[in-house]
Amino acid sequence: MITIDEHRARILASVSRSTATERSVHRSAGFVLADDVVSRWPVPLFDNSAMDGYAVRRADAVEGAILRVVADVPAGCADDPSFGPGEAVRIMTGAPVPADADAIVPLEHTDLGTEVRATPPESITVTVAPKPHAHIRRAGEDAAAGSVAVRAGTVLGPWQLSAIASAGHDRIPVVARPRVAVISTGSELVEPSDTPQRGQIPESNSVLLAAAIVDAGAEVGWTATVRDDEEALVATLADADVDAIVLTGGASVGSFDVVKAVLNGTGSIEFTTVAMQPGKPQGFGLTEAGVPVFCLPGNPVSVAVSFEMFVRPALRTMAGHPTIDRPRSVRRAATGWRSRADRVQVLPVTVDEHTVRPAAPGGSGSHLVTSLAEATALAVVPAEVIEVFEGDPVTVMELR
Ligand SMILES: Nc1nc2c(c(=O)[nH]1)N[C@H]1C(S)=C(S)[C@@H](COP(=O)(O)OP(=O)(O)OC[C@H]3O[C@@H](n4cnc5c(N)ncnc54)[C@H](O)[C@@H]3O)O[C@H]1N2
Ligand code: MOO
């Protein structure tokens, strides 16, 4: 048996960041930026008003001054009206500040207050004198023209995307998301909507994996369910045309374990046992075409755990994510449970702020698929521990 770290290291040494592709900023949420994005202009673009009010010359906008309103500058207006001593220009939030102005008097600091008016008044009386440059948002105070707005390697969320749009870009270079094929193998598998006959079970691994792949920041190319038949599996693999393939089932020592029979020795694909419970039988390698292939054991909890430990970090590496691992923290066991000697136990658990307990009341079991629904984390119990006692500190990988 090899360790989790050894298997993971072999996988991570075989995958690399995908190439960059251009995408619209409108459709790039969750992608990773491939190159720095530089601001095409200063942000803000021009000096503009932070308030609805009046652009004034500060020298004559003293308390009690009566100013004649000679022009109106709504947002979007390109005018730069000139005005002289004793005059003011009505201005709205975001509108360019006239070159003759050096302060804004907000509506509230005039005798007329905030009452809505379609047209500017003839004059206003200043009730509070403005400070120098009051309520003027300076061109370039947020970012200089040519400065980096968002750095390469940043995960693009709503805040980063708005910064890019403000910097003047629609098409942006992002790391391509790996397209992943999912193949569930097993002659016992039927559609979830079918009523299983004796010996049959609903196929759930491809459902789990498709959702997990998307959650990891990759794309599902296609999914397929294949019976335990070598020819059928070979035919399905021939159509792959994807960046990675994840198979479940048939990875162990059973007489009908077709995945191992078909793939062992293809390209660099090797089957091994990992000192992990569940998820002991594992296969991994690159096809002759260089496509990473993950062969996971068929048990649903083994699939969940194997994905988290091996597939997710690899897909996130390919998608360019700066963090490939779940955050780890330590909780106290709210109840005790047993762990198998010589294998690291990776147990679906529910956590609250301070404690951790098995998601399935009985503890571990690679077939306990329904209990997975309760899990919010995975506990990682070292190989040398055979029993966790109530109150023990336990390391957990939080699924967030
Ligand atoms: N003699 C031995 N038997 C087994 C060993 C062993 O070392 N010696 N290892 C056990 C361990 S550990 C695991 S894990 C399993 C892995 O077996 P396979 O990868 O060959 O998986 P299958 O036999 O195909 O399936 C296991 C289990 O999971 C169910 N399954 C499979 N696919 C799906 C699916 N798509 N959706 C839902 N459920 C699925 C399947 O019906 C089986 O119950 O081998 C042990 N045996
Ligand atoms: O390793 Mo198996 O995955 O125990 O269930």
Automatic annotation (TrEMBL):
Pathway: Cofactor biosynthesis; molybdopterin biosynthesis. Keywords: Magnesium, Metal-binding, Molybdenum, Molybdenum cofactor biosynthesis, Transferase. SUPFAM superfamilies: MoeA C-terminal domain-like, MoeA N-terminal region -like, Molybdenum cofactor biosynthesis proteins. Its EC number is 2.10.1.1. GO terms for molecular function: metal ion binding; molybdopterin molybdotransferase activity. It is an enzyme of class 2 (transferase). GO terms for biological process: Mo-molybdopterin cofactor biosynthetic process. Residues 181-317 form the MoaB/Mog domain. SMART domains: MoCF_biosynth. The keyword Lyase does not apply. It holds the Pfam family MoeA_C. The keyword Metal-binding applies. It catalyses: adenylyl-molybdopterin + molybdate = Mo-molybdopterin + AMP + H(+). GO terms for cellular component: cytosol. Its cofactor is Mg(2+). PANTHER family: GEPHYRIN (PTHR10192:SF5), MOLYBDOPTERIN BIOSYNTHESIS PROTEIN (PTHR10192). Belongs to the MoeA family. Catalyzes the insertion of molybdate into adenylated molybdopterin with the concomitant release of AMP. This is Molybdopterin molybdenumtransferase.
